[in-house]
UniProtKB/TrEMBL annotation:
Signal peptide: none annotated. Keywords: DNA-binding, Transcription, Transcription regulation. InterPro entries: Homeodomain-like_sf (IPR009057), HTH_TetR (IPR001647). One of its GO terms (molecular function) is DNA binding. Residues 30-49 bind DNA. Residues 7-67 form the HTH tetR-type domain. It holds the Pfam family TetR_N. The keyword Transcription regulation applies. This is TetR family transcriptional regulator. It comes from Saccharothrix carnea.
Length: 193
């Protein structure tokens, strides 16, 4: 029980840290900014994480761990429309619950191809994410790649807006429908279909 509580507390702290890195970039986020965001002194924060780089890496690692767990669940469903739906639902729930981590990953999406110092540190479209949605990064299915990147972008923007508006529950089904639409799976049961 104590271990699960510790992980949840660390995850929440790292979500806030990730949000700050996303907003200001690695180089423009100070240790004091990070400490203030999580309600600790700078020394208290450094007691748990020895450097700004360690905090950044821990935030990325927790995001990777959660995404790996989510995608392991999604890959239990055969590839195709049903897997896409399951992966989108899991991603939306995670995005609504962890806006800082999603903001950090969405920053990476917005920097694809840019010469930005954070671009080397961020890898939102890691191979396992693409493979869950049946995309081979080097393959020739440009339409599917564009749809998946579009879906991830929509998911990030909409989940962050839902968090900002305090409307996570109300927005959830609409975000899922929008993401599935981006993947080419129009949901006739959704009110906007």
């Amino acid at each position: 029980m104590a271990r699960a509580l510790r992980r949840e507390t660390d995850d929440r702290l790292l979500d806030r840290v990730a949000g700050l890195f996303a907003r200001h970039g690695y180089d423009h986020t100070s240790l004091q900014d990070l400490a203030d965001a999580v309600g600790l002194s700078k020394a208290g924060l450094l007691h748990h994480y020895p450097s700004k780089q360690a905090l950044f890496e821990a935030a990325r690692d927790v995001g990777r761990t959660h995404s790996r767990e989510l995608f392991e669940q999604a890959t239990q469903v055969p590839a195709g429309r049903a897997r896409d739906r399951r992966a989108v639902e899991l991603l939306v729930d995670f995005a609504l619950d962890r806006p800082g981590l999603i903001a950090l990953e969405s920053r990476a999406i917005s920097l694809l191809g840019a010469d930005d110092v954070d671009g080397d540190r961020l890898d939102a479209l890691s191979q396992h994410v693409l493979s869950v949605f049946g995309v081979d990064e080097g393959g020739g299915d440009t339409e599917r790649l564009v749809r998946v990147v579009g879906m991830l972008s929509a998911l990030a923007v909409l989940s962050l807006a839902a968090n900002q508006a305090g409307e996570k529950t109300a927005w959830r089904p609409h975000i899922i429908a929008t993401c599935l639409d981006a993947l080419g799976h129009r949901d006739p049961s959704h009110p906007e279909a």
